[in-house]
Design brief:
With 259 residues, the chain is α/β, with parallel strands linked by helices. It has a single domain (4-250), classed as 3-Layer(aba) Sandwich (Rossmann fold), CATH 3.40.50.1240. The chain contains nine helices and six strands. The chain has helices spanning 15-18, 32-47, 61-74, 100-107, 109-117, 133-137, 158-178, 189-200, 238-250; strands at 4-10, 54-57, 81-83, 183-187, 217-222, 233-234. The protein has a six-stranded mixed sheet with strand order 3-2-4-1-5-6. Helix 2 packs across helix 3, helix 4 (100-107) packs across helix 5 and helix 7 (158-178) crosses helix 8. The longest helix is centred in the middle third of the chain and has 21 residues, at 158-178. It starts with a strand and ends in a 9-residue tail after the last helix. The protein binds (2R)-2,3-diphosphoglyceric acid. The site of (2R)-2,3-diphosphoglyceric acid has 13 residues, from helix 8. Belongs to the phosphoglycerate mutase family. BPG-dependent PGAM subfamily. InterPro entries: His_Pase_superF_clade-1, His_PPase_superfam, PG/BPGM_mutase_AS, Phosphogly_mut1. The active site is at residues 11, 89.
Length: 259
């Protein structure tokens, strides 16, 4: 029997999603389309009668902005929003800023798929010569984390994302859900994939085939031990959702638009 409901949400489209560049820890805002996606998501949730008591986001603006727009559309601006770097997008290391289609042309589509979707393959780490290194590590938000700045990742596989996310899930989010509060996690494609892997016990092979589109709420119905009692539901027009998933998958093809 379903005891708890939980929503996961990949933020609305960001400027670099549109340009097909790995965004990761670079702090990009939502595109105009991303703003509309987040507002539509909030309207849909309201229409379907959902309410939230607490929202958790990463410390990247696109996930925070999405949470605000969803809450505004639902008339729930007062709801507390808690932010943690542990919900940040996966750290894509030296790939940050690069265009996926160009990477597919240079390294092959298979390699790009391995970098993007495999469970335990890490891209090469970012170093000080990288054009976005200073922007990321000099950003004051990374002095506020619960680990020293020097210990923050320089690259991550999905496995490392899960390793840094799980303590936050277990210690902070789980008690809130178990207290009966309705929670929205407004995060990123890969931080949500990592959490789905954990909650749905998805194998390392099968997680490769899980892709989340931007701005689509994912409803999980969980039992008292927070195990899913039915398959996840992506809310909205199912044909549009499938097209949006394919678009994200196709970003790693050599002939993708916005090369
Ligand atoms: O870092 C990025 O560019 C995307 C994910 O990229 P892919 O894993 O889909 O390549 O993350 P998000 O837009 O969810 O923050």
């Amino acid at each position: 029997m379903s005891k708890y409901k939980l929503f996961l949400l990949r933020h609305g489209e960001g400027a670099w999603n549109k340009e097909n560049r790995f965004c990761s820890w670079v702090d990009q805002k939502l595109s105009e389309n991303g703003v509309v996606e987040a507002q539509e998501c909030g309207r849909l949730l309201k229409e379907q009668g959902y309410q939230f008591d607490q929202v958790f986001t990463s410390i990247l603006s696109r996930s925070v902005q999405t949470a605000w727009l969803v809450l505004e559309a639902m008339g729930l601006e007062w709801v507390p929003v808690t932010k943690s770097w542990r919900l940040n997008e996966r750290h894509y290391g030296a790939l940050i800023g690069l265009n996926r289609a160009e990477m597919a042309l240079n390294h092959g589509e298979e390699q790009v798929k391995l970098w993007r979707r495999s469970y335990d393959i890490m891209p090469p780490p970012i170093d000080e010569s990288h054009p976005y290194y200073a922007e990321i590590y000099n950003d004051r938000r990374y002095s506020t984390c619960d680990v020293p700045k020097e210990e923050l990742p320089k690259t991550e596989s999905l496995k490392e994302v899960l390793d840094r996310l799980l303590p936050y899930w277990n210690d902070v989010i789980v008690p809130v859900i178990k207290s009966g509060q309705m929670v929205l996690i407004s995060a990123h494609g890969n931080s949500c994939r990592a959490l789905l892997k954990h909650l749905e016990d998805i194998s390392e092979t099968d997680i490769v085939n899980v892709t989340l589109p931007t701005g689509i709420p994912v409803l999980l119905e969980l039992d008292e031990d927070l195990r899913p009692v039915k398959p996840r539901q992506l809310l909205g027009d199912q044909a549009k959702i499938q097209a949006a998933i394919k678009k994200v998958e196709d970003q790693g093809k050599a002939n993708a638009q916005n090369k």
